[in-house]
Amino acid sequence: MKRAKVNQNINLNDYNDIWVIGEQREGKIHPVTIELIGEAKKLAGEINKKVVVVVAGYEINEEVNKLLYYGVDKVIYLSNPLLKNFSTDGYSISISNLILERKPEIVLVGATSIGRDLGPRIAAKVGTGLVADCTMLSIDPEDKKLLQTRPAFGGNLMATIICPINRPQMATVRPGVMKKATHIDRPTGVVEVVAPAITEADIVAKVVKIMKSSKKTVDLTDAKIIVSGGRGVKGPEGFELIKALAEKLGGEVGASRACIDSGWIDSMHQIGQTGTTVRPEVYFACGISGAIQHLAGMSDSKYIVAINSDPAAPIFNVCDLGIVGDLKEVIPAMIEEIEKNKTFEI
Ligand SMILES: Cc1cc2nc3c(=O)[nH]c(=O)nc-3n(C[C@H](O)[C@H](O)[C@H](O)COP(=O)(O)OP(=O)(O)OC[C@H]3O[C@@H](n4cnc5c(N)ncnc54)[C@H](O)[C@@H]3O)c2cc1C
């Protein structure tokens, strides 16, 4: 496929619309797409722009149509058998050529494993910058540029970054950080099907086989209840208690990075700045001190319960209910109470 040329002398006024790069895996739209649509709609309202979702794939028409029910103006469906499964080359060439042709002003990408691969490659191909792992996006009220905020210096300060001279303004956002767009009954948007002219030769790295991990995966981003353990659980066996409470409540198990670094539990359970960002209905922080990097991933939880033996632990400054005590005594007492009452409503 012929690569479109990067134009260095750009006129900022030529750029319009806010694009969300939608993500699909095995034909199913990833929830981060809906979160990015929610954020794109918020930004679009401030600068009076249209929201467009771009999804690459093949034979996923039904799933693509569903995106209109989140109130977007348009879905551009890049349809080609070579785009059925994600490939860095196929996706980045198809999407960057579309960007160079249509000139969106803002492009949002999910900071998933696919998005982290795709985002920088698109940015390089179209000759712009990219701010990775943003936790907040807003519009500068004066010059209408995108303000892209993310933690910097180990989470000790928040940096707001702008892209002043190149376009589009590109950002990745981690799953679970932004609120999902609301579902609507009567969509007014349209789907445009575009067939990118990519060939086998464009895709240098070939997908030979897709193998699913045999590990049980944890769904932290969509969990309503999360019970997390920290260094206060004292070892891998301490997580048995955390798992028992999570099971009783129908929740998932989370952990602080200290436990992952000590090899007590798999990294897929890590919550925080370098782990997963969560916003459950109830978050139990058990034996977790409340370091800023941990708070970065869970402080938007609706209701936070902290169990800690140190009454001065910083977690008590952010929790809704604080229990000062030894988790080895408090958690079994909670489990006993739940078993007695057989109810736990949220
Ligand atoms: C760049 C960078 C990124 C990071 N990213 C993350 C991240 O994504 N997620 C993350 O979690 N951390 C992250 N960290 C690490 C973070 O700074 C903290 O070191 C970590 O969160 C501490 O984990 P903790 O609270 O479990 O351990 P500690 O800080 O050691 O706290 C243990 C707590 O357990 C309590 N306790 C002890 N015994 C008991 C008991 N029997 N019953 C009840 N309470 C008890 C103690 O009072 C204490 O408050 C990051 C650090 C850096 C520099």
What features would you describe in this structure?
The protein has 346 residues and is an alpha/beta fold. The chain folds into 2 domains: 12-202, 3-Layer(aba) Sandwich (Rossmann fold); 225-341, Rossmann fold, CATH 3.40.50. It has 8 helices and 17 strands. The mean pLDDT is 93. Bound molecules: flavin-adenine dinucleotide. Its cofactor is FAD. FAD binds at residues 231, 256-257, 270-274, 287-294, 308. This is Electron transfer flavoprotein alpha subunit.
Give a short summary of the structure:
One of its GO terms (biological process) is fatty acid beta-oxidation using acyl-CoA dehydrogenase. With 346 residues, this protein is of the alpha/beta class.
CATH homologous superfamily heading of the largest domain:
HUPs
Helices and strands, in order, run as EEEHEHEHEHEEEEEEEHEHEHEEH
Shape: globular
Mean pLDDT: 93
Which CATH class of the largest domain? Alpha Beta
Question: What structural category do the secondary elements indicate?
Answer: alpha/beta
Stated plainly, the CATH topology of the largest domain is called Rossmann fold
Radius of gyration (CA) equals 22 Å
Please report the number of helical segments: 8
Give unreliable regions as ranges.
none
**Ligands bound to this protein structure:** flavin-adenine dinucleotide
Distance between the termini: 53 Å
CATH architecture of the largest domain: 3-Layer(aba) Sandwich
Reported for the largest beta sheet, the result is:
7 strands, parallel
DSSP strand content: 15-25%
Strand tally is 17
Topology:
Blueprint: E1 16-21, E2 24-25, E3 28-29, H1 31-47, E4 51-57, H2 61-66, E5 74-79, H3 88-102, E6 104-110, H4 113-126, E7 130-134, E8 136-139, E9 146-152, E10 157-161, E11 169-173, E12 190-194, E13 225-229, H5 238-249, E14 252-255, H6 257-261, E15 282-286, H7 292-298, E16 303-308, E17 321-324, H8 327-341
Parallel strand pairs: 1-4, 1-6, 4-5, 5-12, 6-11, 7-11, 13-14, 13-15, 15-16, 16-17
Antiparallel strand pairs: 2-3, 8-9, 9-10
The structure holds flavin-adenine dinucleotide.
Binding site for FAD: 231, 256-257, 270-274, 287-294, 308
Family: Belongs to the ETF alpha-subunit/FixB family.
GO molecular function: electron transfer activity; flavin adenine dinucleotide binding
